[in-house]
Specification:
Its cofactor is Mg(2+). Pfam families: NUDIX (PF00293). This is NUDIX hydrolase. InterPro entries: Nudix_hydrolase, NUDIX_hydrolase-like_dom_sf, NUDIX_hydrolase_CS, NUDIX_hydrolase_dom. GO terms for molecular function: hydrolase activity. With 186 residues, the protein is an alpha+beta fold. The protein folds into 2 domains: 35 residues, no CATH class; 134 residues, Nucleoside Triphosphate Pyrophosphohydrolase (Alpha-Beta Complex). 20% of the residues lie in helices and 41% in strands. The chain is built from 3 helices and 12 strands. Strands 4, 5, 6, 7, 9, 10 and 12 form a 7-stranded mixed β-sheet that branches. Strands 1-2-3 form a 3-stranded antiparallel β-sheet, with no helix packed on it.
Length: 186
Amino acid sequence: MNKSVSNKYEETTVSSQSIFQGRMISLQVDTVKLPNGETATREIVRHPGAVAVLALTEDRMLVVEQYRKPLEKSQVEIPAGKLEPGEDPMEAAKRELEEETGYRTDSLKHLCSFYTSPGFADEILHLYVAEQLEKGEVHLDEDEFLDCESITLEQAQQYIREQRISDAKTITAVYAWQVYKLTGSF
C-alpha cells in the first residue's frame, strides 16, 4: 500500500528506540513531533507482512482450527502465514495453503491487501482467493498444530455468530465469499 506523500496530520520522527527484536515481530518506541509542534511517543510493532487464502472447493471453504495463545482459545481461520524476507506474497499464499491444508493451486487471485492494526502495527495482510484446488500433503511447521476442514457458507456464518471465527482476515474472506455467491464475482 502506498504511503501518503504529504499529510497535514503527519508526525515527524524525532527519535526511535528499539525495545524488542523477536522471530516474528519487533517493537520500537518513537518520539514524534505532532502537527501542533508538541511531542508524543508512539509504540510501534514492526511485522514483515502476511498472506491469507480463501480456498474454495466444491462450494466449501477450507479452514484450519488452531489454538491462539493471545486469545487463550482455539479459533477457526482461513489458511494464513507470515511472509519471509523478500518473498512474493502470491508464492507465500501458495506455500501456506499447501503447508496448512495439503491443497495446491496455480489459480490464485488477489482480493485485497489491508493493514491489520494501523494504530500500533505496520503489518499488511494480502488476501487471495484460490479455486481449482488439487489435493496434496500437509507440511506443518514443527510448532504448528491444527486441524483442517471444509465448511459451507452457512457454517462459516454460524461460526462467526459463535465467535469460533473472530479474526478480521477470515471474516473478510467469508463476506467476500458471500458477495461472490450473490453476484458471481469478487
